Amino acid sequence: MNFRQLDLNLLRVLAAIHRTGSVTAAGKALSLSQSATSSALARLRGHLGDELFVRTPGGLKPTRVCERIAPEVTELLQRLESTMSVHEAFDPARSEVHWKTSLSDLGEMMFMPPLAAALREQAPRARLSNVAVAAEDLAGALEAREIDFAIGILNPRHRGIRADLLFREHYVAMSSGGWRPSAGRASGRLTPEQLASAPLVVASPTATFHGSVEKMLVRLNLSDRIVLRARHFGALPDLALSTDLLTIVPQMYADNLSRRHDMRVWELPHDSSPDYEVRLVWHSSTANDPAQMWIREQVHRLFRR
Fold it and tell me: Where is the HTH lysR-type domain (predicted)?
């Protein structure tokens, strides 16, 4: 192989296909068409004299040669990108950077508006996109630079992943303004009996916040009190306002809702809602990237407490 004739972009394609196991997914991650990605793979095979990936019923499987070189190629690309970015001055007012994050639907409602306001004021040419990434795929997406950061109840334990604690939070109950417990005296905190007698509406456990609500209800033996499940947290206010149902949401979200709707916040019984930790998660390969450092600083400034 003549290394001088090797296009660096071909190595990016190799790393992306190895990461995703798919030509289509790799092309999407690199903003390339499927035909362009397939062409790049063909050129790589010619350069290296190896198939690199073979088709199986489960998708593309790397050859032994590919398994040997792909991790090193990925690491070298990350180091090169980090090295080059250190020498680039970052001017948020002029930058056209496109940041990609991964937030649940609740995270999108709580974190995107303040971030968007900060960007419009300080980095008006920049863009921010929320990309759907499953929790189990988060570390790989960060490593492959498919996303730049994520915020949520996250603590992925993978090499190279950094997790900055932003704040600790707990859950509260919310109802329409006129709702009252069916038993006992109404106060600012529900008793175990009052919570156990209330019909509940929750969001389905498809993201980090959703799953932690369900786990809490299982621990309290209250799963059978769920009479309605919605797909998104955003549906809960209207459902609670139009019914006698109680819903359980993070305190931060409850404070936001109570300012905009005729809704009442109820503290949950003592020891029923342990604190959980919300983190900013990112990859160490971007530690010295000026643009990534800047957006992380904004996240810390807006949400760390």
Answer: 6-63
